[in-house]
Design a protein that fits this description.
The structure is a single chain. By secondary structure, the protein is an alpha/beta fold. It has one domain: Spore Coat Polysaccharide Biosynthesis Protein SpsA, Chain A. Helix content is about 30%, strand content about 20%. It is built from seven helices and ten strands. The strands form two sheets. Strands 1-10-8-9-7-2-5-6 form an eight-stranded mixed sheet, sandwiched between helices. It is globular.
Length: about 260
Amino acid sequence: MSSDDRPSRFSKQAQALEAIWNKGPLSLGFDKMTGPLKHNSIIETPTRETLPLPVSCLILCGGKSKRMGRPKAFLPYGGTTMISHILNVVQDLFAETFLIANEPETFEDFEVDVVKDILPYRGPLGGILSGLLVAQYPHAFVIACDMPLVEPKLIRQLVGQRHEHDVVVASHEDGIEPLLGVYSKNCIKPLEESLFNGDLSLKDFLSGLNSATFEIAEESEEGLPAYFNVNTPQDYSRLVTGGAIHHLNVNKRQQQ
């Protein structure tokens, strides 16, 4: 399919983002963030809100997948693909959903808007910025396309903590998951600054914000933690076999 034949939503969004980006950093005029710097502030109380939530959803569709060897978004999972599975989980939860992709034409068959990454193949910071620039709501839930074990209950609990912080990300005993969290539009200016300075580390970016963490369980019903992400063929093998192995171990313990 030629570029002229692609759905207009790709080119229009790409042009709009490029126009904003070409104005230079700090072009959007958001006030500087206020409030104390918060490290590892643990939030545990969930809230319930009417669906769809007044929040944008940004699904980051990944880079070149060098370690996996093929696009992770289209790996088979649960009778479909990982990206389709995640879309099925999130679409009814949020008022709007976007796929953030380096090559948006790859996702043209999905009935969801696709946003081209402002800085292709430069890491997740550009993808989050691209999504926040087109989001219609003050906050956006961010999830990577290779995290298929995240469930609606966890998402709602996490999103429910968005009001007092610029960023809330999932955490566990081994660290934090910056690609499973909620980002406010207050992050746009710091994201622009980090990208223009060449600082592409998400964890370094978060350290300078009014951020908090949301602690999540170490194991899901599939026998792997909800934050489990698929980066290598070995990870994918664990994903597709982990649930079966987990249930076998449970049965063995019950028979003993």
